[in-house]
Specification:
By secondary structure, the chain is α/β, with parallel strands linked by helices. 36% of the residues lie in helices and 24% in strands. Strands 6-7-8-3-9-10 form a six-stranded mixed β-sheet, with helices on both faces. A hairpin with a 2-residue loop joins β1 and β2. α5 runs parallel beside α6.
């Protein structure tokens, strides 16, 4: 379990996060949802260990990791732009993280990840030859081979559309289930958050507006911001959201 306790962060005298506290259970998909500048990406980077917090604590499975360096936390991230190496083919990108840890993953485990993400036909391709969805799958595979304790995804669907977006969404759900990885996603899109997550964290101006299941967020919004952000942005009535995305709330 990952627990955040009273996390605060300022940048240039501006309060970006103001007392964020929540718990994420093992194997859950949690989406951090909010407007641009709400603090969601800062919170993701604090969990990763990329950005220090001003105060508060991060507890993972009962151990305080607040001062543990990023490289020793065992978390990993897929960035919005994939951050693939253009000079390496797909396969070399996937195994890049194993260069200094050759015994971390067995050959069978590596082959399983490649096949699970349906990347075998693309292993010898240059990055520029891959579609957006294929690049996203390569980035996911490169992260999975490092056996992360927590998988962090920064706007994983923002560069995709249509069928490709739905395919990657299904892949993320399947990864969480198959490998039992706790997954935290940053998104600005309410529909993405509601249809992919077990729980949704809605942040407004550095504070938690609501944290709960998609069903709870839709049926019992905590305040007018949640109501407007979720319902009005989707431009459909609350009752219809459940009908449209109902299977996600079971």
């Amino acid at each position: 379990m990952l627990e955040l306790k009273n996390i605060k962060k300022t940048f240039g005298g501006r309060l970006v996060l103001d007392g964020i506290s929540l718990q994420i259970e093992e194997g859950e998909i949690v989406s951090m949802l909010g407007l641009s500048g709400s603090g969601k990406t800062t919170l993701l980077n604090i969990i990763l260990g990329l950005v220090p917090m001003d105060s508060g604590s991060i507890i993972y499975n009962g151990t305080d990791i607040s001062k543990v360096p990023m490289k020793k936390r065992g978390f990993n991230i897929v960035f919005q732009d994939y951050a693939l190496f253009p000079n390496l083919n797909a396969y070399k990108n996937i195994v890049y993280g194993l260069k200094n840890k050759p015994d971390l993953l067995s050959k069978e485990e590596l082959e399983d990840i490649i096949d699970f993400l349906e990347l075998r036909p693309h292993l010898s391709k240059k990055i520029e030859q891959l579609s957006g969805g294929q690049k996203q799958r390569v980035a996911l595979a490169r992260t999975l081979v490092t056996k992360p304790k927590i998988l962090l995804l920064d706007e994983p669907l923002s560069a995709l559309d249509g069928v490709i977006k739905e395919t990657i969404k299904d892949r993320i759900k399947a990864i969480t289930q198959k490998y039992k990885i706790t997954t935290i996603i940053v998104t600005h899109d309410p529909e993405e958050a509601l249809t992919i997550s077990h729980k949704v964290l809605i942040i407004d101006k550095g504070i938690i507006s609501q944290y709960g299941t998609p069903k709870e967020v839709i049926n019992k919004p905590n305040n007018s911001f949640v109501e407007e952000f979720i319902v009005h942005q989707l431009q459909i009535k609350r009752d219809n959201i459940y009908n449209l995305f109902g299977e996600c709330y079971a």
